[in-house]
Design goal:
Layout (H helix, E strand, L loop, with lengths): L11 H14 L12 H14 L13 H4 L1
Amino acid sequence: MTKHSVRKIISDAMWKKLGAAVASAKHSRAGAPPRQSDREFLEAVLHLNGTGSPWRDLPAKLGYWHAVY
C-alpha cells in the first residue's frame, strides 16, 4: 500500500458477491451516469458510517463529496 492509497473496506472477494446484488437492486437507469462506480459509492458510505464524519469531510480519494452524496 502506498502512502497515498486509501484502505478499502470492501475486499475483492466480498465485492464479487455484492456487485451483482447492488446492480440488480437499482430500479432505474434514469439521469446522468454516475461519476463513481457502485463499489466506490458503497466504500464512501461505509467510510462515513464508520467514522461518523459529515459528507463534506469525505476524503478526496473516495470521490467528490457532493457527487457521492
